[in-house]
């Protein structure tokens, strides 16, 4: 009886101990990029926060910044978003803060007027004032470019 309890204890705790000792960076890395725009990594929580702020402002008929975000995104580039428009765009910031005005940066979260997530796009790597898709997207957040 003692032997079987010891065996169970060792087989359930030893692999965890070895994993924690051998690869501590895996256990200490809370960030995972849902989308990457240029060199900027966006987690699902950062994307959700930007979309939530944009939606809140839209519902309150308020805008922020000199370009008055959120505003209609016309999709001149012809992205194949997983939800139907019309679309709104709202800045998503690389520093993790939610946009409240000032410089919007290059990246945008796109959602429709039903508050359904469409994607994340960027001016980085695009010509002129156009957008290109950010890398990433999974079953929860993506159109998978």
TrEMBL record:
Catalytic activity: [RNA] containing guanosine + H2O = an [RNA fragment]-3'-guanosine-3'-phosphate + a 5'-hydroxy-ribonucleotide-3'-[RNA fragment]
Transmembrane segments: none
Signal peptide range: 1-20
Name under which the protein is recorded: ribonuclease T1
Coiled-coil segments: none
Family: Belongs to the ribonuclease N1/T1 family.
Record-level Gene Ontology MF annotations: hydrolase activity; ribonuclease T1 activity; RNA binding
EC number of this enzyme: 4.6.1.24
Keywords: Disulfide bond, Endonuclease, Hydrolase, Lyase, Nuclease, Signal
Gene3D superfamilies: Microbial ribonucleases
Pfam families for the chain: Ribonuclease (PF00545)
Class of the enzyme per the UniProt entry, highest EC level: lyase
């Amino acid at each position: 009886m003692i032997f079987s309890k010891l065996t169970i204890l060792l087989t359930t705790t030893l692999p965890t101990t070895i994993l924690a000792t051998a690869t501590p960076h895996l256990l200490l890395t809370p960030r995972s990029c849902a989308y990457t725009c240029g060199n900027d990594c966006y987690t699902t929580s950062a994307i959700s926060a930007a979309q939530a702020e944009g939606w809140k402002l839209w519902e309150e008929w308020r805008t922020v910044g000199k370009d008055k975000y959120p505003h209609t995104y016309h999709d001149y580039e012809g992205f194949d978003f997983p939800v139907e428009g019309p679309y709104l765009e709202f800045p998503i910031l690389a520093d993790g803060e939610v946009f409240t005005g000032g410089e919007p940066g290059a990246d945008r979260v796109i959602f429709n007027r039903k508050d359904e997530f469409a994607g994340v796009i960027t001016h980085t790597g695009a010509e002129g004032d156009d957008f290109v898709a950010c890398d990433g997207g999974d079953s929860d957040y993506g159109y998978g470019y």
